[in-house]
Description:
heterodimer, A: alpha+beta, B: 14 helices, 0% strand, disordered C terminus
Amino acid sequence: MAIVSINNVQKHYGAYHALKGVSAQIDDGEFVVLVGPSGCGKSTLLRMIAGLESISDGTIEIGSRVVNDLRPKHRDVALVFQNYALYPHMTVEQNMSYALRLRKTPKHVIDEKVGRAGSILGLTELLKRYPRQLSGGQRQRVAMGRAIVRDPQVFLFDEPLSNLDAKLRVQMRAEIKQLHQRLKTTVVYVTHDQIEAMTMADKIVVMRDGIIEQIGSPIELFDRPRNTFVAGFIGSPSMNFIPGTVKGGRFVAGTGVHLPLPDGARVDAVTYGIRPEHLKLDNAGFAVEVVVIEPMGSSTQIIAKVAETSITIISTERLALQPGSTVRLMPDLSAVHLFDRSELRISD
Amino acid sequence: MSSTFQFDRVVGRTLLYILLVIVLLFMAFPIYYMGITSLKTPGEAYRLPPTLWPQRLAVESYPYVAQAWSYWRTLANTVLVAGAAALTATTLGGISAYGFSRMEFTGKSVLYGLLVATIAVPGMVTVGPIFMAYKDLRLLDTHIGLILVFAAEFIPVAFLTLFTYFKAIPKELDEAAAMDGSSLIDIMFRIIFPIALPGFAVTFLLLFIAGWHDFLFAFTLTITPDTRLLTVRLFEIPVRSDANTTPYDLIAAGGVLILVPVIPILLRVQRQLVEGILAGAVKE
């Protein structure tokens, strides 16, 4: 277990500036998720922590030791790969014990560690099998088992669930979280899936174009996103953004739709943000035109148009609406987010 | 409708088989003809028009050739030279192919181009200079000299074959092994090479056969019967003391004696090739 501290880290690939000075502190035993769209540098950062990419500038410390020039094997971290990277010519047992065998660990210790990891992950029956004889979920578990037996200071996960089908992904998500609660090892987890980030993380690091946009707990990011990017990235379906201007205590969108504002809203707001679940059907509200209705059972998702902007509404009521009809919506004023011209959120 | 379809299928299949039989006959006939000629009497082997089956089965040509060639000695020479050259080339070609498949370095594409270009240099061009150099180096008429030349000729081939093979193995395996604490040597010999074993086997066997086939260098760089290889011996087929005609039966018997030892290898290569292809197809 260890603190990982990332200090103004940069990465250049020739002329391409992949990481433009990234700093973050990962506390001992914390589960940190790096999230962002593809190409944002999250995997690069993870691979730099692992020692698979060189660090162009800045430092990375693991357990108060600068690891910039240390080889992966001396960093005491374990990485679970997206495609599992299991050794195809070794059995599950050999895959898991490989690192220990390299270190000339006594056989009885290896057997004990592999046995324990196997039982934690439900692999006991599969120890003699080869990776090709396993299902996707089982391979994923073996990849984690390989990491666990080493008892590293930090676990690194590189999009470990993206090769699994939706159902298995939800199941493995819970298993990884449970595993972390049990082992209490520091975890750095990379994903592009904000739901994975929200459900698993103690702390989320949102990245875009080689910089960190915001660091915070899932609820912090959800309730107080720093800018439109974080606001749109975290939460599903995404937050609605309606462009307009503040006039006479109201937010005027496009050709004159008036949206209610919370008290004391600043006049420099140019984007009105409201999450789909914070819009209620209410005759006192503003008018929108219904475009598509998607019943999902527990809720209904409505796609509507307000002043040429498409917005989404989530309603838990059973609605009898027709496409083309007009409904009125009332935002929950405590959940309205206003953004200024530089896309920053205007704090309350 | 469905019966027409059935009919079409049967006709299609029949035509396919006829075609396959024609191709097979075309390829197999020379070998068949060699086989039966080796079993003819010297007189019948020389007769025109030729017979397609010996009128009298005669196996005398075999012991004659075997004795004249010191067959077992020559066979051992050939296995030694072809085997050692193929092994050297597969090992060195494999190590360099691994490096090329995994590392970026200055001049990589130039070096790659040079390596591949050497395949295009005909042996005829280099045999003269090599002969003269070997004379000075006292490598003429030695097996080690032949092994070196063959290995040098084979390395680019082994390199190319194995390079493709390594490219197909995901880089993450190297990285996972590095994370697990492997050195570069561990990664190569404990992870990547074992995975590429079918590729190594096929490469080795194909080069072994290439060494078995070589005539030019084997003929030029060896002098005494003690170092000669099988193919050269075929060129030096003895003429019987009692005849002044071309001994077709002896040439055919010699051909059979050269061909037979590689048949098991060819069958093995065929299996390995299929396995190698499958291994690539299911790799995750």
